[in-house]
Amino acid sequence: MGTHTDTGAATAIVNAAVYCCDDAFGSFNPGTVVFSDGVIDAVGPSGEVDVGESATVIDAGGRLAVLPGLIDAHSHSSLLKGYSENAQLIDWLPEYQREHQVLTPDDAYFGYLVTYMESLKGGTTTVMDMYRFGQRGAQAATELGMRAHLVPYAADHPTKHFFETLETSEQLIRDCHGADDGRIQAWVGLEHITYCSEAMFEAARELADRYGVNIHTHTSEQVEEVELVVELFGDRPVKVFEERGILRPGSVLAHCVWLDDDEIEVLADTGTGVAHCPVSNMKLASGPAPLQHFREAGVTAALGSDGGISNNSVSMWECMKTGSLLQKVTRLDATAVSAAEALRMATIDGARLLGIDREVGSIEVGKHADVITVDLWQPHLMPLALAEGHDPILWNLVFAGRASDVRDVWVQGRRCLDGGEICRIDESQALAEIHERTVDLLERRKSASAIPMVAD
Ligand SMILES: [Zn+2]
Q: How far is the CA of 57 from the centre of ligand 1 (A)?
């Protein structure tokens, strides 16, 4: 896994609580992680790992946790969070789409930037993002040093003319797939099934085949939405997707809250994965996804924020905690989704879902150094003492940890966050520009009225 980075000498984080998120869910405390040239060179107990003479050493002194970078498997960048509120999905979507009717590439750039800044500060190193003008997303991610899988909101229904098309999607693949040393990927996206014709599905599959990229869409978020699809197409959404040929290994469906057993079996049989968005599903009153059934059926499921628009946060910490709590309370089972399972979903399972698990998602020798540190030396993350073989730190990270606890982020060995500060761009200048652009977009949005979900 040779890489070209600007890291120079090795970095060693020593005397930390290290959670590898590998298959064995290995952890070391006190543990050491060493990386150089973007690649993890060593991980293990601090007493056993040779740090080398020239390494830059960060001595955690037992006060930092080290985790793989978090992966947000389904997000939507936006400048406008907090404006479409208090509505069921079917009413919420047309209101949200007012922004898209007037969105320009410059608006999109700042939407990407503000969202990725928030993601990065919370320890997210990779995001799968369905939005518009993806070239500008590649620009924002590259400036910050993050990984982004860009998925255009594409549709061909005449009333949704403002969305991307398969032509612009192809252009995005040509422009950006594999850019920034492979950290940027472009996928083929399909907006809601009610906005995309059968012919568009076929063309989307051909486009994905032609460039060897995957397909992503979202579905079955709400009961009324599934009923609408059954009414329009005569079958449940996942069955329609199967007929239209987009389900296969590498394909990812977001949400999947209201699937029946047959649909879950179809996902398992076709190797299709799920991006589960617990916070958004609760906020939009969608319901609890059958996460345990996905796992039992062997369907890869990871966590997504669904973006600030329906979550008001892109914190993967909130997704981990909420994802666990939602399963516990709906199954009346306190053992559902342990801290380790939640962390795995936000790391290695996310990497698996996005098809990048050979490169990232865990702290293992030879993998890319997507590594974060978390400040444990705070009242809400105490205690740090292991007792009787039990580790409270992992549980407290998942159930008490916050995005603002993240101190340092490296993506492929390149420092992107330093002591909680974004280090590759000027954060306060960016915020000023983002604010100015938001005010401007809101002014232009006045001219756009909501277009219903399905037009007659
Ligand atoms: Zn979504």
A: 41
Phi, psi at residue 406, to the nearest 5°? Answer: -75, 130
- What residue spans define the domains of the chain? 11-68+361-422, 70-353
Whether residue 290 is preceded by a cis peptide bond, meaning omega within 30 degrees of 0, is no
How many Å apart are CA 17 and CA 36, to the nearest integer? Answer: 20
Q: What is the pTM of this model?
A: 0.96
Count of CB atoms situated within 10 Å of the CB of 419: 9
Between the CA of 255 and the centroid of ligand 1 the distance, in Å, is 7
Phi-psi label, residue 432: left if phi above 0, alpha if psi -120 to 50, beta otherwise: alpha
E strand map for 20-96: 27-36, 39-45, 56-59, 64-68, 70-75
362 pLDDT more than 70 = yes
Q: Identify the architecture of domain 11-68+361-422 in CATH.
A: Roll (2.30)
- Using a CB cutoff of 5 Å, list residues around ligand 1, an ion: 218, 306
Token pair 């498997």: residue: 73
Distance CA 318, CA 138 (A): 26
pLDDT in tens, 150-166: 999 999 998 888 899 99
Give per-residue pLDDT as tens, 56-108.
999 999 999 999 999 999 999 999 999 989 988 888 888 888 999 999 999 99
Give the length of the chain: 456
Architecture field, domain 70-353 = Alpha-Beta Barrel (3.20)
Q: Which tokens sit at 156?
A: 């061909």
Is 82 in contact with 312 (CB distance < 8 Å)?
A: yes
Q: Contact, 383 vs 56, CB < 8 A?
A: no
Q: How would you class 191 by CB atoms within 10 Å of its CB: exposed for 0-12, middle for 13-18, buried for 19 or more? A: buried
Contact 424, 144 (CB under 8 A): yes
CA angle 410, 415, 421 (to 5 degrees): 105
- Cα(217) to centroid(ligand 1), Å: 8
Helix axes 316-331, 392-400, angle to 10 degrees: 100
Percentage of the chain with pLDDT > 70?
Answer: 97
Separation of CA 245 and ligand 1 centre (Å): 21
